[in-house]
Amino acid sequence: MSNAQFIVVANRLPVDAVVDAEGNRTWRRSPGGLVTALEPVLQANRGTWIGWAGTAGAAPEPFESDGVTLLPVELSENEIFRYYEGFSNASLWPLYHDAVEPRVFRRSWWKSYYEVNERFAEVCAREAAPGAVVWIQDYQLQLVPGMLRERRPDLRIGFFLHIPFPPVELFMQLPHRMEILKGLLGADLVGFQRPLAAQNFLALTRHLLGYRPRGHYVTVDDRLVRADAFPISIDTAANEEVAGTERVRQRAKEIRAELGEPETIFLGVDRLDYTKGIEVRLKAFRELLEDGRLEVPKAVMIQVATPSRERVDQYVALRERVEREVGRINGEYGQVGLPAVHYLHQSFDRYELAALYQAADVMAVTPLRDGMNLVAKEYVASQADNRGALVLSEFAGAAGDLRQAFLVNPHDLTDLKDGFVTAATASADDKMKRMRAMRRYLRKHDVSRWARSFLTALGVPERSAAYNPGSLPSAD
Ligand code: ADQ
């Protein structure tokens, strides 16, 4: 047993390996809300982050980064294929997102998922101090809470699911559904993005295990498990600060100038994922051009599609479909030097991203299903002058927080098209009122509030423990 008082367990470590020309490896911290939110807590408690380092083969030795111990877990090439790309991303991911794409099940994938979860649980059981707090993240590691509790009943265990949790009928399709449910019930607190997801989970304990949930709680072997919603957010202050820099303002102007000063710039920024509704968004834009309700070059679209899961079949096929649609729109509606859709299959740093957000008149966030969607929140935080308009899918968790967005149903093409036009033609006053209200909300409900409320619900007192240097109280 080691002395780690506070442990985060996630599929990936919060760093990426950078290998130079001589083959030397260094680590670059990967930016992201989760890291930002958890960093102070981890630093204050000599915290440990357990996760995969992102490459196949033997795990690197544990190392320190900004006062946090990073503990890499090994994954073989075969496990990356079966546990990660297979069961996590081709079985669970589509099923949990309302099966908007058909899910694939393979028995060998499950075996690997089980084994990798067991490896994470074993590493964690070895590292945790008596009574330590462990916070497990996301759908790749749903068996870890149960496996860890078996090995270390003294720990206080939290689990947070970043993606939606499906209704009972869909979850029931999952092979090994019982093991997964029991795995999650190993936690003291199971957190979700939205209240409905927590309700789905509690209903399932009744349906599948015959338990009797009461309110947010269900009793499992004399132990009380709480299931509740903790909507994740962004580091609002950091986003506002970047958006307020001269560099970003200048770059936003430059982008508008480079596009020929259009009246309306529509923007989409997503991982290239079939849940994000990129295809339906492009289709809506094409039909609006077809109908003559929009016209190039007065209206243009920028679609940033971050490369993602490029070895999973459904993602390869999606990329082909999206690129074909972009080609079709540009072929039909572009002019020499004036494409209708600017398609960028690239990653950008946060300054460029903020400049794109600021340059855009209408941000189109139209997922068919999404746990939260941080892009919508980042866009709002970047609107220093409250000028832009957010079109937001009702099926994104963010719709529960950003109530003043132009809400649309992306499964209804007519509604989506109308939403685009309404947002593009809304008065400056209307847009400003909406944006102000959403920015106020995000200043209060930022990512550190999210982490704090989860940890408080897990029983970590706010004024001691994780929020101040020193040790955490024991779990009893
Ligand atoms: P994701 O599905 O990855 O997250 P999202 O919440 O939008 O979706 O986060 C994407 C992040 O990547 C944003 O912070 C965004 O700035 C960044 N990003 C996107 N495109 C980029 C690009 N081209 N270059 C650089 N950065 C880019 C999952 C769930 C979501 C949930 C989050 C957090 O699917 O529903 O909101 O986890 O819980």
Automatic annotation (TrEMBL):
Organism this protein belongs to: Glycomyces mayteni
Gene3D superfamilies: Glycogen Phosphorylase B (3.40.50.2000)
Record-linked Pfam families: Glyco_transf_20
Protein name: Trehalose-6-phosphate synthase
Family the entry assigns: Belongs to the glycosyltransferase 20 family.
Coiled coil: none
Record InterPro entries: Glyco_trans_20 (IPR001830)
Taxonomic lineage of the native organism: Bacteria, Bacillati, Actinomycetota, Actinomycetes, Glycomycetales
CDD domains on file: GT20_TPS
Top-level taxon in the UniProt lineage: Bacteria
